TrEMBL record:
Signal peptide: none annotated. Residues 3-743 form the RecF/RecN/SMC N-terminal domain. Residues 620-642 are annotated as: Disordered. Residues 167-194, 255-330, 395-488 form a coiled coil. This is RecF/RecN/SMC N-terminal domain-containing protein.
Amino acid sequence: MKLKRLEIFGFKSFGRKAVLEFNSQITAIVGPNGSGKSNVAEGIRFVLGEQSMKSMRGKRGEDLIFNGSHSTGRANRANVTIVFDNSKREFALDFDEVAIGREVYRDGTNQYFVNGSQVRLKDVLELLAAVHIGASGHHMISQGEADHILNANPKERREMLEDALGLKIYQYKRAESERRLEKTELNMKEADALRREIAPHLRFLKKQVEKLQEGKELRERLLGLYREYLKREEMYIEYKKKDIAGRKHGPTNELADLNMKIERARQELAKESAGDEKSERLLAVESRLRDARKRHDELSRTLGRLEGMVEFEEKQLKKKQAALVHKEETPIRLGDVEALASELEEEFLNGERSNDLNDIKNVFSKLRNVIRSFIARHKEKAGQQSLTEEDHRELSALKDEKAKAEGSLREIGEESRVLEGKYQAVKAEIDQEKERSRDTERALFEMMARRGERESELDRIRNEEENLAREERHIEEELNEARTLLGQAVLDYSGVVIDTGEVMKELREEQETRRRMIERGKIKLEDIGASGGEDAEKEYKETSERDLYLEREIEDLVKTQESLRDLIVELNEKLDTEFKGGVKKINKQFGEFFKLMFGGGVAELNIVKIERRKHRDTDIDLSDIPGEQGPELVEGEEEDEEGIDISVSLPHKKIRGLQMLSGGERALTSIALLFAISQVNPPPFMVLDETDAALDEANSRKYGDMIENLARYSQLMVITHNRETMSRAGVLYGITMGSDAVSKVLSIAFEEAVEVAK
């Protein structure tokens, strides 16, 4: 990689645009004091991201902008652009040239550019660190700072060497990993806190969902029981209807036939026994007997209906009684609630007027006792509640009506028995009076007896029909309740497969047992409240998914934390290994340059431990106070760091240590060390700002030899007044300043001048 040119506009004394081309390995910049030649070096510092205004001889960003003169207006911004040859792709950019620019405005705003695109300072520093150009400035040695590395403390020297050895990229990665690790740990704490926050709510929702699931399972079981029950009832009723219809058809037809025959027989008998008073009596008794039987049948049907109504009303009263048992559903008088609110309001006012914590606690205690007493009082009232007289009034009326019907039925039954006796008595009289057998009369009596049997049989069948109709009404009620509780799905029982013979063989008590099981299931389902749980299930699902997401997030963060820690350990090991290896190589070059500069002697870098003074977590000794302990050391104290110390030994002098060196000796030592560093890990370019100012003629020649040797590895830009140093340059730039206070650039290419001279 090669430094191609530097463009300066508006920076310090460069009021007009100046371009410096670097076509030689050694470029010298000369000029009188105050002409602005050091501003070139500071411009390079500026564009490479220097943040210290002190190192650029300013206090604020505005000081870096050309401030104008009596003939030239001031600039509004300062811009410096440095251009590198990237044909070998040392920079990780797919361009043949890489231009890094920086602008500062009078409000102090800075902008950075790479090939015209605005970037961050961090991007510029990382881009430069990848090619061993760091922020410590080992590649830029300004006037008066040549021995900065000697004056620095061990920690600062280590940082300089790490920068020079190209280890900043690892430090950037380590710092980034540590920031990511800190952020990861913070995210872990936040995720864990969120999980702890939602855990109680999740447990509550889980119980709710389990209860709802239990309700769903109960609904399914109840649905199955209902379907089987309804299917069996439907099959039973259908079978009974067909059976009754089959049994009713024969007696009905036979009764109709008997009535016709009896009527004809009566007509014949009337002809035979016209005027027969006993026969008339017999017919009258028969008529009354038929009327009594007819009224008996009507009362039987009425009694059946009343029994059904009584049974339905008793069922409704049982449900109401069961509802009263559940105290949670017991209504409370508005007046009682208003009295409670008034009492609570009074206690709240007492608490608000007091500033004493004990009084406030007493208020809360009274509030708790008032609420508990209110609940207990109404629970007791709820336990004492029962069905009222009004609730029993309709049932009592129905029972009275039923009792009257039963009494009337008994009276009609007694009347029928009396008429039957009279009928038999009259018949006996007629039999006694009539000795001869009359076929017609006998046939009539037989037919009437047969008709009585058939009518009784039909009465029994009609009773069965009434009972069956009552059961149908019960089934309809069950269907309505089931539909309300379980929805339309309960009506879909057509797919239930049950053998008809099994249904008819089964005792009705077993079906009643199923009905009682259904009733118990309905009560339990109502207690659970399984309906309307979609919102709770949705919330539980969302909360569970969030908890699972947080759990996975924490697991991922733990893995990230472990990988970052491993990466930091790996980077520390790599830094330590490469740093120690680099120090070893620098020591070799440092010793050789030192001997060259001083004609002998020994100089080397040593890795030393930087001890940290451990402090205590308090400066107050509490050991003399009972129950207190003395100050303890803070746990987690960082390990001792390593730094760099420099030891020198001059030839023919008993001088060991930097403190005993003269100014010239310190300058030569610092130059030897800086050149040694540059030999081990040569930077792409170096800027030497009058680092040879303190050298005599002999040492200047040595210095010139050293920079020629160094130029084989790095491109050099030397700001100097030394003629020996100038003679080693391939291009010489002269900086001048006229009356307009603007720095101007003149150039001489020595290599071209030699060719022209020849």
